[in-house]
Amino acid sequence: MKRLFLMIVIGVTSLAHAQIITQTIKGTILDKQSQTPLPGAVIQILDSTKKYTTTNDIGFFKFSEIPIGRINIRVTFT
Fold first, then answer.
1. How far is it, in rounded angstroms, from Cα 44 to Cα 50?
2. Strand runs (DSSP E) across 1-78, as ranges?
3. Cβ atoms within 10 Å, residue 27
4. Residue 49 has what pLDDT?
5. Mean pLDDT by 10 residues, the chain (78 residues)
6. Is the CB of residue 40 less than 8 Å from the CB of residue 52?
7. Cα 61 from chain centroid?
């Protein structure tokens, strides 16, 4: 009986962790004047996670599993 109870408790805690709602942030970085994609631009999320990514050849980027809420980002291109 104790073994079954332990398995049920572990299952319930796993379900509770699986319900964390996240968002995906994606987009394309373009040059303001020419409207051409900027490959290699660095996009950084300005919070405690310090996540960052770079754009691909067509200026596209994507962040997955970001907590729901307003996100501040910084884009740099050199």
1. 7
2. 22-28, 42-45, 52-54, 60-67, 73-76
3. 14
4. 74
5. 47 55 92 93 87 95 90 90
6. no
7. 10
Instruction: State whether residue 16 is helix, strand or coil.
Output: helix
Predicted pLDDT of residue 38: 93
The one-letter amino acid code at 23 reads: Q
User: What tokens does 45 get?
Assistant: 């999320």
> SS3 of 4, please?
helix
What tokens appear for 47 in the block? 């919070």
Q: Position 58: which residue type?
A: I
Q: Which two tokens stand for residue 15?
A: 């379900």
pTM of the predicted protein model? 0.71
